[in-house]
Structure formats: C-alpha cells, structure tokens
Amino acid sequence: MSKPIKPEASALATAILKSAEIREHSYNDKAALEALKEAEKSGVGVIHFESFYGVSLRDAAIAGSGIELAEPAYLLLVHSWNNAINWAKETLK
C-alpha cells in the first residue's frame, strides 16, 4: 500500500509538469532544424538551442504554477530537469 500524497507535494509535482510542458511547447522545432542544417552546411559547430524557446523557464514556471510555486518549480527544473520531472510523475502516480 502506497503512502498518501501530501497536498503540497501534489501541487509542486503538478506545477513542475505544467511548467515543463509550457516550456517544451514553446520550442521552435522548425527554426532549430534550419539552424542545424545551416551550421552543418557552413561548418559552424556551435548552435545555441536555448534561443529557440519562445518562453523562458522562469516565465513557464510562473505560468504553470502560479506565483507561490513558481520559484520552487523553476529551481528544481533549472538545476535538475530530468530528476524533477521523474519525481513529479512518480509523485502523481
């Protein structure tokens, strides 16, 4: 039998997943692919893929979680994106 989830953990997990979804949906795949093709053609080896996001991670955290959980969601995602998302998914199972 699993432990009951505390409301705070559930709220933070939901905020993390919503924030990550907002951030990922703001990515401009078409522009990134074009930049990659151009870099390969010209021999340029550095592409700043961060620039292809339409929403900053901080703005995504605010939009996805509201002001109270924006900072914790942002900090967890910026420092440990995969771990934060995995924890959130496990928490909400």
Write the layout of secondary structure elements.
Layout: H1 7-25, H2 29-42, H3 57-91
Helix pairs in contact: 1-3
Give your account of this protein's structure.
With 93 residues, the chain is mainly alpha-helical. It has one domain. The protein is 73% helix and 0% strand. Helix 1 (7-25) crosses helix 3 (57-91). It is elongated, with a radius of gyration of 16 Å. The protein starts with 6 loop residues before the first helix and ends with a helix.
Q: What is the mean pLDDT?
A: 90
CA gyration radius, whole angstroms: 16 Å
Low-confidence stretches: none
Shape: elongated
Alpha carbon gap, first and last residue: 13 Å
* Class of secondary structure makeup: mainly alpha
- Order of helical and strand elements: HHH
Strand content: under 5%
Summarize it.
The chain has 93 residues and is mostly helical. It has 3 helices and no strands.
Short descriptors:
single chain, 93 residues, mainly alpha
